[in-house]
Amino acid sequence: MGIDLPVIWALIIAFGLMMYVVMDGFDLGIGILFPFIHDRIDRDTMVNTVAPVWDGNETWLVLGGAALMGAFPLAYSVLLSALYIPLVFMLVGLILRGVAFEFRFKADEAHRPLWDKAFAFGSYLATFCQGVALGAFINGFRVSESTYDGGSFDWLTPFSLFTGTSLIAAYALLGSTWLIMKTEGALQRRFQSMARPIIFAVLIAIVVVSLWTPATHPDVAARWFSFPNIILFSPVPVLVVITTIAIQHLVKNDTHAAPFGLALFLLFLGYTGLAISLWPNIIPPAISIREAAGPPESMGFTLVGALFVIPFILGYTAMSYYVFRGKVKTGEGYH
Amino acid sequence: MQAIGLWLLRKDTVYLQLYHFWSHIFAVNFAMGVVSGLVMAYQFGTNWSHYSAFAGGITGPLLSYEVLTAFFLEAGFLGVMLFGWKKVGPGLHFFSTMMVAAGTLISATWILASNSWMQTPQGFEVINGRVVPVDWLKVIFNPSFPYRLAHMTVAAYLATALFVGASGAWHLLKRHDTPAVRTMLSMAMWLVLIVAPVQIAVGDAHGLMTREHQPAKIAAIEGHWESKPGESVPLILFGWPDMAAETTRYAVEVPHLGSLVLTHSWNGQIAGLKDFAPQDRPDSTIVFWTFRIMVGLGFLMVLLGAWSAWVRWHRVLFKSRHFLRFAVAMGPTGLIAILAGWITTEVGRQPWVVYGVMRTKDAVSNHSALELSVTLIVFVVLYTAVFGTGIRYLLKLAAKGPGPLDGHFPEPAPADGRPARPLSAVGDRLDTAIALESKRS
């Protein structure tokens, strides 16, 4: 058969996950920046910039989960049960911020601060848990006889706590550059000044993770530093440095899309770094996408629907971002 | 689900007002569905890891199709139905509304196919300790699927009609008598009158299918322990099935009726619980009662339909206060019956998660009791808060009633005509609606 189903599905899921990180990243980032902005009208403006799109963004996460189960049942069962606690609290965070997002517009003045707090808290919780899950994923899982064999708290390591905190910084960067693009005036200037320390924090996080990972994972180190890989991978760190400098410079001057575009690119680089470190393993450190793949009958069946619907979704998503392009003015809501 | 019933009915220009009123309520439900749908895609892996490793090859694709369909639905939904009234004209708007209705139905179809396959599995082989689909048509169109789909779809219509009818009746009782309110009640009651008996027929067919494929479930539902040769099966109206003593205590029986209902013959026999090993028996105490709650409410719905026909005949449909009070009381029963029905079918298939193939105890992840209880409590608290607020808001919206078309239009209509998210289709604030309500009463 000419079609390599596990690879296609791994790419689809990786793509879906990236879409999720990119798109929900900036709207979670808005929740992360919430505690630093106190004015009610400013907060409304911030939320209004993502109001039309946030729940569509979250659907990528649902699709990722369902597709993982359909294509790689083994990976789905091992990863999700190993990450039970962080994932449950991620869901709690997402639900909390989701409903807070909706209800804060409907609440009266007395209850609004409560929903605002829930929105910010949920955003932090969900982001932190995602970062922790990511760290635990890089660390790998103990598996025996196709079952997760580790303890309930194996995910809890200094490394995963660090990746959790790092992701908060990364999403805050996406959020602040998104808001630079979507707002204007005094509010925009606040995000411009806020973005600079955040970029610095993100850079530090990237450097630390890039040193910590090979230091504790000999197989990753071997892959990175062996010849010719070291030449092939070398553009990644160089691009990271160039990108951060460029963002630093641009947030001062460019008040439009460029900082956000570069922040996305930075995240994409980090994602690429992760992918080249772990490929083709889907349950690090040892189980590859082929070993974890479901029956070809299942993969093929779902692929038909996915190939039909995903282009449609992408088109629709692009269209809705196009419709909502431009600055959101203070007081202009969809409500 | 709740909304399916509405679309087909609301498309006369006279009904525009009502259509917009109820599409707001649909929007609230939809928003709550988005967040809770997230949990399901992950729970299979977090809590049922052995099940998903074993049967993910079938459940996964079905679930993926559900999500893909829901994506479709959301695209059409956000774009046109709620916000695009002024942009696209009635024809296209009507079409997109139909698309949303169809999307909801198709989305539900995938989930029900997945559940039905677990109840009556076929079209697969077990190779190397995991399920491999052999024939997808057989997997999807498994024996219990058509019945479950029909039963659930009709239940959704019925629950919607009961809720709509109850809000109409409530407004009439509060002397808030407008043509829109009257239409609301009248249409809902027509629907109940026709659909409630249909549901009983569908349920009966569903029962016959279950007797064939899941006999232990039927025995547990009926609290029936053993059939002696040549003896007909009585119908136990009430009683207390005692699993330990293997008997149904305090049984109030009607002779032959059990045979009549379950086999459609005077002396037909069904399997008794004692025909199954003790570890293969579902908990009869629970399903006996949840089933009776569902069926009891079902007959009350038929009664409501009949009563509505009676008062309509006597031209006091909008006046008879006894009838209106009954209609209000019946408002939540559709939902309660749906829940009772699901408990019956899910508890009734125990101890199996894939019927006859995998036991529930073999399907769960290896989490400690502490982990499970903490996460359970977190979800209970969270869901109570979220759905509590959601339902409160819904009731307030319903209490406010359909308004005039202008000012209450679903288009928040900012200058550049940008649409927004589902819930922003609803203009009302959480807390002002109640003020309106108290002013009126």
- In total, the number of domains of chain A comes to 1
Overall geometry of chain B: globular
Order of helices and strands of chain A: HHHHHHEEHHHHHHEEHH
Determine the fraction of residues in helical runs of chain A and give it as a percent range: over 70%
Helix share, percent of chain B: 55-70%
| Distance N to C terminus of chain B | 31 Å
Quickly give the structural class of chain A: mainly alpha
Specify the oligomeric state. Answer: heterodimer
Please summarize the sheet with the most strands of chain B: 2 strands, antiparallel
Give unreliable regions of chain B as ranges. 1-14, 405-425, 427-441
**Mean of residue pLDDT values of chain B:** 77
Class per helix and strand makeup of chain B: mainly alpha
Query: What is the number of helical segments of chain B per DSSP (H or I, 4+ residues)?
Result: 14
What is the CA-based Rg of chain B, rounded? 24 Å
Q: Can you tell me the residue ranges of chain A where pLDDT is under 50 for at least 5 consecutive residues?
A: none
Report what the structure shows.
The complex is a heterodimer of chains A (335) and B (441). By secondary structure, chain A is mainly alpha-helical. Chain A has one domain (5-323). Helix content of chain A is 78%, strand content 3%. Chain A contains 14 helices and four strands. Chain A has helices spanning 5-33, 40-50, 54-71, 73-82, 84-106, 112-139, 158-182, 185-216, 218-225, 229-233, 235-253, 258-278, 289-292, 296-323; strands at 143-144, 147-148, 281-283, 287-288. In chain A, the strands form two sheets. A two-stranded antiparallel sheet of chain A has the order 1-2. Chain A has a two-stranded antiparallel sheet with strand order 3-4. In chain A, a hairpin with a 2-residue loop joins strand 1 and strand 2. Chain A is globular. With 441 residues, chain B is mostly helical. Chain B has a domain at 1-142 and 367-441. Chain B is built from 14 helices and six strands. In chain B, the strands form three sheets. Chain B has a two-stranded antiparallel ribbon with strand order 1-2. Chain B has a two-stranded antiparallel sheet with strand order 3-4. In chain B, strands 5-6 form a two-stranded antiparallel sheet. In chain B, strand 1 and strand 2 form a beta hairpin. In chain B, helix 2 packs antiparallel against helix 13 (369-400). The radius of gyration of chain B is 24 Å and the shape is globular. The model of chain B is unreliable at 1-14, 405-425 and 427-441 (pLDDT under 50). Classes of the chains: A mainly alpha (335), B mainly alpha (441).
